[in-house]
Amino acid sequence: MATTLTINGEAKSFDAPADMPLLWVLRDILGMTGTKFGCGIAQCGACTVHIDGKPVRSCVLPVGAVRDRAVTTIEGVGSTPAGAKAQKAWLDLEVIQCGYCQSGQIMSAAALLASTPNPDDSDIDAAMAGNICRCGTYVRIRAAIKQAASGRQS
Amino acid sequence: MIITEKMSDPVSRRTLLTGGLAGGFLLAFHLPLRALAPNEPVQPPDSTSGKFAPNAFIRIDAAGQTTLVMPQVEMGQGIYTAVAMILAEELDANFSSIVLEHAPPNEKLYANPAFGIQATGGSTSLRAFWTPLRAAGATARAMLVQAAAQQWQVDPASCTTSNGEVTHTESGRRLSYGALADAANTQTPPKDVPLKDPKNFVLIGKPLKRFDTPDKVNGKVVYGIDAILPDMKFATLAACPVFGGKVGKVDDSAARKIPGVRKIIVLDDMVAVVGDHMWAAKKGLDALKIDWDEGPNARISSKDIWQDLRAASEKDGVVAKSEGDIAKGLATGERLDASYELPFLAHATMEPLNATVHLKPDSLEIWTGTQIMARVQSEAAKAAGLPVEKVTVNNHLIGGGFGRRLEPDMVVAAVRIAKQVDGPVKVVWTREEDIQHDIYRPVYRDTIAATLSGGKIVGWKYKVSGAAIIARWLPPAFQKGIDIDAVDSAVDMPYDIPNFHVEYVRAEAPAVPTGFWRGVGANNNVFAIESFMDELARKAGKDPIEFRRSMLGKNPRLLAALNLVAEKSKWGQPLPTRVGRGVCAQPSFGSFIATVVEAEVDEQGEVHVHRVTSAVDTGTPVNPDTIMAQLEGGLIFGLTAALYGEITVDKGRVQQSNFHDYRMLRIDQAPKIEVHVINSGEHPGGIGETGVTAGPPALRNAIYAATGVALWRLPIDRSLIAGKKA
Lengths: 154, 726
Description:
The structure holds two protein chains of two kinds. Chain A is an alpha+beta fold.
């Protein structure tokens, strides 16, 4: 099925079955490999993207359901204020280890920061508990979100 | 700072650089590698240590670009940055302009001195490479100085180096390393070059930013699973759900109708579907009707495995260490006995197993992320029926290793599939396949008997029963029936015990493949030992830290860590009901770490880990921030296993399949973690696994303190602690 999506502000046209999850369209058709495959059943959050600014697990989102809504991926989130803040805090606090889950972590964090500019611990728990980090970087993820929110070292 | 994706062959690189094209300078180092001290774990026998080979880590081109070749792989542990810091420190390179390159598969140049093969694991990287890398950097620096001194006709001793330049102090003349590259290449490498006095370190000991992280925040990083080749196909596979089973009949009529499915490949033990993308491959696989020939393992269950292991652990084992008179020791004072059991565990790396393969009639190229470059190359060559030199392996930054990528099976499977595919094919395992066909952390059972007299241990008999991974993975290191990994941390306990005896029973579970899992043998032994220490302390009527302290006379480094953690964790200060503190003290992987966990057990038996405090002496800290990060993450990794980790088998199949039933600790359950790094100035210790081994026993002891219930098995059984309070 010929489809056109707006991804990171650009129109992308491709041919894909309507039931194909957005994750595989991004990775295997468009070659945008920043969005990661982790579990395939919305349990780990590695595939998180934004649909109209809201965090969504792309591994279970049929591409046919996206329609004309804006898709933002890790490749484009740096051009949003919240995304740029999150990326900077992630590097300032050296959050990342293997990094495989961190695209999804940053996407979830950026969506949180955009909707809740000063999140407290329970906001962070609620927004981030869907993202597994096997390296166990949670302590720094929490600190980085707070730093991104305040602009100060936490 | 750049990490180059494409690796080049060191031989052709040398040809290029010395052939005048680049006018560059290549140092091929021929350094005797330091063997690990005999009491350190995973020590190969002399027969393999004799195979330690020359290394090539540094090259500098005429433009002054310094490329550092990384002998160890980066899987999040920060080793690329640490290796670069060590080389650049002794080289006095301009650190901000360094380029890193993955080493190619080459056992001669890049073998890990701890194993004698090219492997990253066992928290060995800094322990094994610290001295060789410093010597490599210092020798390179000395050759550059010699070249400059020759040009200036001065004494090399009158020259200094910094930031990629040689300076003649008296005259103020300066030459960049790039300008000296050609001349340095003709110098004879000096022998026994002195290393820097640590007080002059400018990089080592500083919390420098990592090389690998900037591309990890914006989606640019390329893991093995992200490899893209022109005209590449995508495949996913299913092995027989029963270990060792075979493919019977396959009905592919429905799968063939799925758009994008290109090929169904039926091998004797697995089926793969090739498609235009992973979605087609996955849908195709789901649509296959496969009759499996399950074979004899279809009768195996966890119940039987445990029954067998318990029976095996009652037998006498091979004596791994014996000091004093154990019979006399066990006949003295008050005796306590206990047994501890640890389950099978999956690795569950966030990057699912994968390999991209392009098999041509006379060559094979592989894109993957592996902890064992050269072994992947040779195993892939065997599977393809090609000579090893026809196989190119492109390694990548790794999305989690944890020991799973110390095995080549995912690459071998991809090569077998690629034999039936024209052009390149990316083979990605589903998470379900990844969990159900892991190479699991073995089940272990540890039996301990100890006696107490005057508040101290006088006799200690410890027996570990479990698989001998070393016998399969590094056969030359399996000597006299003892798996040196399985007894690691048991034979080198820190406490003063006059009558001490350790045995090993090799007990292989039927059918279930077992391998290394982050924390390796120490995970099992530190859990059993440190749990039992708390039970002994209680029997002796002593505070758990006081009890340990009194027997650490010969281990000042661990004692210092224990004292520090007692202070920082506010040990001894009152806590509410059902909240407890637990301690674990251990030398492991060449480091000394003491950890206190504070945890609450609620009415329902759910465990809430509030706070973890660790004090660690890991010798000379190379990058203190990385040490803290590895401990924070390692503690979470260990606590995850203690709280949730168990793989069970029924009818020959693994019962768990994805993160809903093989749970991970998440941010809302993560404790506060405080790490204190002690700089003892000693040889660097390992740090990637130290926190993993510390978490479970400290948590278990916190639960013991909170509830009075002694747990003898992991993961934590909530039903045993619900409603209990100390």
